[in-house]
Amino acid sequence: MGFLRTLAETFELIVLSFFYSIEALFRLVVPQRRKSVANETVLITGAGSGIGRLLSLEFARLKVTLVLWDINEQGNEETAQMAREQGSPHVHVYHCDCSRREEVARVASLVKKEVGDVTMLVNNAGIVIGKNFIDTSEAEMQKVMDVNVMAHFWTYKAFLPAMIARNHGHLVSIASAAGFLTMNGVADYCSSKFAAVGFAECVALEMIAMKKDGVKTTIVCPSFINTGMFDGCKPQSQMIPMLDPKYVVKKIINAVLRNQPIIMIPRSIYFLVYLRSWMPHKVSFLLAHYTRLFDVMKTFVGRKNN
Ligand SMILES: NC(=O)c1ccc[n+]([C@@H]2O[C@H](COP(=O)([O-])OP(=O)(O)OC[C@H]3O[C@@H](n4cnc5c(N)ncnc54)[C@H](O)[C@@H]3O)[C@@H](O)[C@H]2O)c1
Fold first, then answer.
1. Confidence of residue 222 (pLDDT cuts 50, 70, 90)
2. What Cα–Cα distance (Å) separates residue 258 from each residue in 10, 42, 62, 263?
3. Which of 120, 145, 186, 214 is disulfide-compatible with 170, CB 3.0–4.6 A?
């Protein structure tokens, strides 16, 4: 009986793997239809500048109810004003330091009371220190982990239960290519992004295991983006380029509306992650030298107000 079951399951595995591989190839040519998000309530952390602001404006055009969180009150208000001009019917602005557990819980309760349940959660807020590990203070490292990954724990705790209860929602994690590929000068940042990717993947698996297939997940892993966060860096390789923020945001929105589980931007990141999985270490160091990767953080200036 056990043998027959194993045989049946193995047969199913082979047939379905083949089917899903063909489906994935087909989807490269004919992408999944974009879903409507007009009735969704979208919360974006770090909405006061960069990717968070541009995402807010794109979602505003899609007529969602927007909830904008940031510690930068002026930037957040500016984003809200721009979102209203883009036609968003409801824009709600909150000051929230999402690295602080109690503050996330408090502001999340306020949001639930004043706006209602959040149905799409975009964890975007992030910081980078940009120093070698040995020169980074304990407080700086702690802050990077708190903003870039622990905040995701606290926001999921606050908003995921309602999504599970309704079997409806979308969790978007703005991680980074640094969540799969490492570089010198960003040990804390890379660690936080690896953790963010691992966390988001595990929760995605939990949704599948719980048969909550109405709760979608998207992990976003871009290369450098010209928002100011990595000011001063001059990546020399077209494989890991400095990207235009508007281009990145179009790609993110497209991936979210098509319920894509993960997106790496540009596509060369997929190739580098694949290479990394089998390439001998010495060859990868050679490649890093060849692409001047070791030098990228030498000219880092970053944002002044981190
Ligand atoms: N810029 C890049 O090169 C790049 C590349 C890959 C991934 N990313 C990721 O994209 C996301 C957005 O980055 P960006 O380039 O738009 O940066 P940004 O500095 O322009 O925006 C980050 C926003 O987060 C806010 N923020 C910081 N700490 C916060 C906190 N504790 N609570 C609430 N808000 C906080 C800031 O005030 C700011 O408005 C980040 O998670 C970043 O790691 C950026």
1. very high
2. 30, 16, 14, 11
3. 120
Distance 126 CA to ligand 1 centre (A): 4
Instruction: Name the burial class of residue 295, with classes exposed (0-12), middle (13-18) and buried (19+) by CB atoms within 10 angstroms of its CB.
Output: middle
User: In three state form, how does the secondary structure of 73-96 look?
Assistant: HHHHHHHHHHHHHCCCCEEEEEEC
Query: How far, in Å, is the centroid of ligand 1 from the Cα of 178?
Result: 14
Question: Closest Cα to atom 8, ligand 1: which residue?
Answer: 176
Q: Is residue 220 one of the residues assigned to a domain?
A: yes
Set 94, 189, 270, 274: catalytic member: 189
* Structural domain includes residue 32: no
**pLDDT tens per residue, range 188-214:** 999 999 999 999 999 999 999 999 999
Pocket test for ligand 1, best of 44, 104, 229, 305 (most atoms within 8 A of CB): 229
Looking at the CA of residue 303, tell me the nearest atom of ligand 1. Answer: 19
Whether residue 17 lies inside any domain: the answer is no
What's residue 3's pLDDT? 77
Q: Is 189 a catalytic residue?
A: yes
Indicate whether 206 belongs to any domain: yes
Cβ pair 173, 197 in contact under 8 A: yes
CA dist 157 → 102, 161, 235 (Å): 12, 7, 37
Measured between alpha carbons, how far is residue 248 from residues 197, 223, 253 in Å? 18, 9, 9
CATH value at residue 67: 3.40.50.720
Residue 218 near residue 171, CB atoms below 8 Å = yes
> Are the beta carbons of 82 and 57 closer than 8 angstroms?
yes
Parallel, antiparallel, or unpaired for β 65-70 and 242-243? unpaired
Domain that holds residue 271: 38-299
CA-proximal residue: ligand 1, atom 1 (nearest): 225
Count of the separate structural domains present in the chain: 1
